[in-house]
Design brief:
0% strand; globular; 283 residues; mainly alpha
Length: 283
């Protein structure tokens, strides 16, 4: 069993190690020998190339951090506030509303109606809300996960005792239920954090102002610029493309995008397994 777990862990870790090594591998070495864990020659040309755009990258980092923090906090508040009433068997229309939430996991309005609603009705194009709101209202899976955790982990006798002692619904939820639900809050919080950090689709659809580019959007556009220069037949642009370490730059962009999440993950890890396991039990 330990051997199998070791192999699975290695399959997860080795690609990332190869990604980091490839980002500091000399471009010519990659072309001659391919990607390798022990390259013949190291080079930081990719990071030097990206550093030329450091101001925009740091600005994009700020946008992404702000969107991730606001989106995660608001997402947790909305998810917990909806999941807790659905977990209460004494709430009227409990099953119907749970089915309604579950329905949204299977069907949605599609991209065009969604785009028209956010741009024409709410006028969110080129605003920070365009990076937060679309992902905030489409997390039915998190609601069902948290609802199951509340149903299986919070004893109904505890809620009844709180009622007998005179506690209201809001006080019971805020002072009793939430402190006992740290594993699922950390788990869903981690899911939301990764979702907002890695999101580039909302930025691509709703943002055209370069001042509002998130990190993933900016890295994606840098990558597209490199691909455009490398595929161009014009003399000047071809010379520019020849000076860019294309392969190692692609790897360096991936490292820059994923590194903060790897730093944050260990702080959530001790809650992650328990929250996901208990929340996934059918109830």
């Amino acid at each position: 069993m330990h051997v199998i777990l070791f192999l699975i862990s290695a399959m997860c870790i080795l690609p990332f190690i190869l990604l980091v090594i490839s980002s500091v591998t000399d471009e010519r070495t990659i072309y001659l020998n391919g990607y390798s864990f022990i390259p013949e020659k190291f080079s930081f040309d990719a990071y030097q190339y990206i550093w030329q755009d450091a101001d925009r990258i740091f600005h994009a980092y700020g946008i992404t951090i702000m969107v991730t923090l606001i989106g995660t906090v608001c997402g947790l508040i909305i998810t917990a506030s909806l999941a807790y009433p659905l977990s209460r068997k004494d709430m009227p229309l409990n099953k119907f509303l749970s089915l309604f939430v579950f329905f949204t996991m299977l069907f949605n309005g599609g991209l065009v109606p969604t785009y028209l609603v956010y741009t024409q009705l709410f006028d969110l194009k080129n605003t920070m809300l365009a990076l937060i709101l679309p992902s905030l209202l489409t997390n039915a899976f998190y609601i069902m996960l948290m609802r199951t955790f509340f149903m299986t982990s919070i004893p109904s006798a505890l809620i009844e005792s709180a009622k007998i002692d005179g506690a209201g619904e809001f006080f019971t939820f805020l002072r009793i239920v939430l402190p006992l639900s740290l594993p699922i809050l950390a788990t869903v919080g981690l899911f939301l954090t990764i979702q907002y950090w890695n999101d580039w689709f909302n930025g691509m659809v709703y943002i055209t102002d370069s001042k509002l580019y998130s990190l993933q959007n900016l890295l994606n556009r840098i990558l597209l610029d490199i691909q455009y220069l490398s595929s161009s037949d014009f003399g000047t642009q071809t010379e520019l493309a020849a000076d860019i370490p294309q392969e190692s730059t692609r790897m360096a962009l991936a490292v820059i995008g994923v590194l903060p999440i790897l730093i944050v993950y260990p702080f959530f890890q001790r809650y992650f397994v328990k929250g996901l396991t208990v929340g996934a039990v059918k109830g």
